[in-house]
């Protein structure tokens, strides 16, 4: 098991990589996270890992509660946040209590948003079960819900107590979920680490074969990159904006398709190519880099062109993006 610390002074926290879900209770006991823990997950994820996590936490003396959210980006909304608030009240959670997000980015965002606002903030722990959540969504403290007009328009910056990454869960993911996470890894290689990008180009077949060593390397390097950027700019006032490469267009694609046609990683892949094309025309992006980006995304079976989206909905969503300036 490796440990990477996200150094944010009093809000610093560890990310455990290569940990085992059956041992989470031993780790959790080391943190001041209260007695009552609410696990937020969905039906599919809980059926795979929920009992393992619950039993491990129960064995060391925590009082465990559970709630399940339907699967899908469209449930990351204020109405479902409201339902979770009611359950927090029913379970009599206190300021010392903790919400544990067991799932992918949607679960992490929704559970984190509720944790950041219930009783003006209670403890939060992330157990990411998708590649996308492990390399991106679980690190950095962004939590949010969507509005009908656009993605992540209501949210905050709220750091977890710790992040617990079990790489073995990736073996149970469908190929589409793996591809979505790979888009974020490609992003890190393109914006911050040429060696990582070259590593991906050289190891496409091993990636397709879910090689454990390759995935461990990808997850570790991605988390290191994200942690360093977040440490320099926690609230996205400058340097952290580089992590949004492909995301402004990507989020508009998701919103315009009502979160049905394209998953987040697929939309980001299209967004990176589009942003790269715009930057090329402005002489900000080398032509060879754009060619390599498109080739790698294609080899990883990720889309690079947009199809089947209403243009008016796309432009409306783009103008409502929270990152727009001017």
From TrEMBL:
Enzyme Commission number(s): 4.2.3.4
GO terms (BP aspect): amino acid biosynthetic process; aromatic amino acid family biosynthetic process; chorismate biosynthetic process
Pfam families registered for this protein in UniProt: DHQ_synthase, DHQS_C
Domain 3-dehydroquinate synthase C-terminal: start-end pairs: 181-323
Endpoints of the signal sequence: none
CDD domains: DHQS (cd08195)
Cell compartment(s), UniProt: Cytoplasm
Superkingdom field: Bacteria
Domain 3-dehydroquinate synthase N-terminal: 68-179
GO cellular component: cytoplasm
Catalytic activity: 7-phospho-2-dehydro-3-deoxy-D-arabino-heptonate = 3-dehydroquinate + phosphate
Protein name: 3-dehydroquinate synthase
Lineage of producing organism: Bacteria, Candidatus Aerophobota
């Amino acid at each position: 098991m490796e440990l990477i610390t996200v150094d944010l002074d009093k809000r610093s926290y560890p990310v455990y990589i290569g940990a085992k879900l059956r041992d989470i209770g031993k780790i959790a006991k080391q943190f001041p996270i209260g007695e009552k823990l609410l696990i937020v997950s969905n039906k599919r994820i809980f059926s795979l890992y929920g009992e393992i996590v619950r039993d491990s936490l129960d064995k060391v003396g925590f009082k465990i509660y559970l709630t399940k959210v339907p699967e899908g980006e469209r449930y990351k909304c204020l109405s479902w946040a409201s339902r979770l608030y009611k359950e927090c009240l029913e379970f009599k959670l206190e300021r010392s209590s903790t919400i544990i997000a067991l799932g992918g980015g949607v679960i992490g965002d929704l559970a984190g948003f509720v944790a950041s606002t219930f009783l003006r903030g209670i403890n939060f722990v992330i157990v990411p079960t998708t590649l996308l959540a492990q390399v991106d969504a679980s690190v950095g403290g962004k939590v949010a819900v969507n509005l009908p007009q656009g993605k992540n328009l209501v949210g905050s910056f709220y750091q977890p107590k710790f992040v617990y990454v079990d790489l073995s869960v990736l073996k149970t993911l469908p190929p589409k979920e793996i591809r979505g996470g790979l888009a974020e890894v490609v992003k890190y290689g393109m914006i911050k680490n040429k060696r990582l990008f070259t590593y991906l180009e050289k190891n496409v077949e091993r990636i397709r074969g879910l090689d454990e060593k390759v995935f461990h390397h990808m997850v570790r390097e991605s988390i290191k990159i994200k942690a360093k950027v977040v440490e320099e700019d926690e609230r996205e006032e400058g340097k952290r904006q580089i992590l949004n490469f492909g995301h402004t267009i990507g989020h508009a694609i998701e919103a315009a398709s009502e979160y049905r046609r394209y998953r987040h990683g697929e939309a980001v892949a299209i967004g990176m190519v589009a942003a790269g094309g715009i930057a090329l025309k402005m002489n900000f992006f080398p032509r060879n880099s754009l060619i390599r980006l498109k080739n790698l995304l294609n080899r990883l079976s990720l889309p690079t062109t947009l199809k089947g989206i209403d243009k008016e909905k796309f432009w409306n969503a783009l103008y409502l993006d929270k990152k727009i300036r001017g």
